[in-house]
Structures are given as C-alpha cells and as structure tokens.
Amino acid sequence: MLVIVGGGFAGLEAAIQIRTLRPTCDVALISAGPALVYKPWLIYVPAGRRRFAELCVPLAAMATRYGFQLIEHRVDQIDLDVQRVRLANGRTVDYSQLLLATGSDADRNRIPGADERAFFPCRPDDAERFAVEIQRRKPNRICVAVGWDRRGPGLELAGWLAARRKRQGLPDMEVVVVDGDGRLADHYGAEAMAAIRSALRRSGATLATESGLDAVTGSGAVVGGKDTVFDLVAIVAPLCGVNIGLPADMLDERGFIRVDDSFATTRRGMFAFGDAAALPSKVATSKTMVSIRQRVAHLATNVLADMDGAPLRPLEPSVAPHQSMSNIGGHAIVLSDNRVIAQGRLPIFRRWLYDQSYFRLRS
Hints:
Elements: E1 2-5, H1 9-21, E2 27-31, E3 35-37, E4 56-58, H2 59-66, E5 69-72, E6 75-79, E7 84-87, E8 92-94, E9 97-100, E10 104-106, H3 114-117, H4 124-137, E11 141-146, H5 151-163, E12 174-179, H6 184-188, H7 190-203, E13 206-207, E14 213-217, E15 220-223, E16 226-229, E17 232-236, E18 239-241, E19 257-258, E20 270-272, E21 277-278, H8 289-308, E22 323-328, E23 331-336, E24 339-344, H9 346-362
Parallel strand pairs: 1-2, 1-9, 2-5, 9-20, 11-12, 11-17, 12-13, 19-21
Antiparallel strand pairs: 3-4, 6-7, 7-8, 10-18, 14-15, 15-16, 22-23, 23-24
C-alpha cells in the first residue's frame, strides 16, 4: 500500500493523481486534520477579507470521490526499517511505498524573540490569532516583516491590511513593511522594487527605509540595529521542514527532505513532494501551488514505476521564465524573471478564476 503523509495541497493532489492513473492502487492519506487549508488565501484572514472556514476543503469528500483511504491523525514516528508509520494514538500503518508531503513550517526560532512575541500568518492558527489580536488590541502601528523564502505573500498581507483599515474600523492604523532579511532589492531588482513601492503606497502601507529584522521585543522590533516601536509584529516568513523524526542524513540544513531529480529519497520506496522536498538545484523551482500541479503527474508516474520495479524518470531542468504575481491590496504586479510585464486589476481577475476553478474542482 502507498501511504501519503500530509493532507495539504501536495499530498491531496498526489493521492488524486495516483488513483486517477491507477484506480486499483491502494492509497492511504494521513492528515492531521479533516480539511485542506487553501494557504494562498491565508493573507486575507487578518485583513478581514475571508473567514477561515472559507479556506477549508474537506478531505473526506475527496477520499470518497477518488477512492483513497483517509486517516485523520497526527504522525508520531516512521520506522524506516520495517516500513511502518506510527500515529499519535498508537495505531500503526504499514506501507510498501511512502510519500512524504508534510509541507513546511515557519521557522519561529530563527529571529530572537519571534516565537514568543510575533505572529506567523503563513500558519493557519497564527493567521486566525493575528486577526483576533488586531480586533482586540486596535493597534496603531503594525510591522509586517517580509522576505526569506516567500516574499510575495508578505507583501500581499501588508497591502491588504492597509487597504482594508477603514472596513476593519481602524482608519488610522499604520502598516509598515520591513525587509526582514535585507535582500528584497537584491531579489527583485530596481524595476520590480519600484512597482512594489508604488503598490504599497497605493494600498496605504509604507516600506521602511531600514532593513533587517534583528529581533522581536516587548515594545516592537529591532530593525537594522535600531529599536522600533510596533504594537504587533507579523513575519512572513523564514521556513523550515516539518519534524517527523527522520534521520539527520535525510535532511538538509533547514530540515527539508533531500530528494533526487525523480523525487526519490535515499531510502527504498520513499519519496517526498511539495514544500517538504529539497530538490537538486538544477531542477528546483519555487515552492508554489502552480509548480506542484505542474509536476504531480511526473511524481505519480515515478511512484507507480517504483511499485512495478521500473526505472524512475528524472525531471528536466526548467528553461521557462519564472513568473509570479503579487496582489498588493487589490493592485497586481506580474513579473517574468523579475521584469514587470503587467500591472492593475485584470491579472487579479485571472487569479480569481484560477482559485475558483480549484475550489469547484475539489469541493
């Protein structure tokens, strides 16, 4: 039996693809919760644009439709020698092939004081808590630190927090964007940064002149070596792998699972996919929903080939330009290899169609 650990986007799409390619394959999906959380919409929760319930796709309906077994529980341990997954309730599940799609987690300990004093809205529980604290504390000044692994979502969060201040009853709230790792301009370049600054100003947010989030304190944050007063601090966000007790030799320096260019780990019959996987640099792409959907068929084919004892097919290096879009408070910036190729509201409509089509497909 194929066991998939992780009920997020990568795990669900892999289960569906494998069952579609081979309906006779026994697949069990282990998820810590009953629903997939549509993480691209998490940024809207603190801004009051979406309720958290609107982000959830029930997994039970997908299990029934595509014929895989859904096991709702947290994984406690994986015994690689006997190929067995142990759940927190003591139940064990044996596997012939194992796919780890555990996603990523916010690295709460990378910045001193952040674990105790900051919010990480890329996590579902923190997005909800951040929304509650905004309404409870009525802050005058919010810091949104962006950078590290995913710059776009942080910029989007700041833009929407600022754009919806009046609707939240906080017309005077100041939203300050801090370049958390000090590498925003190096990553985007001058043209894209000019568009980002303009979009932030349009939404009502400001980009701080000082960069580098050194620490989070009881009165705010240390930015560029200077104490700065903020009522709330949100970080979006340095990431790390999810700890499921794997041996250190299977992980990179940030806890992601090392795989080769076929998604295979160093252990027989074991694969990793999505945010959890650390691919070789020549085939690595941004960890996004789009890249998962583009590559899930390749992964599924290799998992099934492994079951059949057939050779695995390596990924081809990507030669297409890297495209991304940030929706900063209702103003889109579309980049191709960090060149601005479109701006305005039309790209937002296209992404809205993409999001809605996914929900219709999976709801």
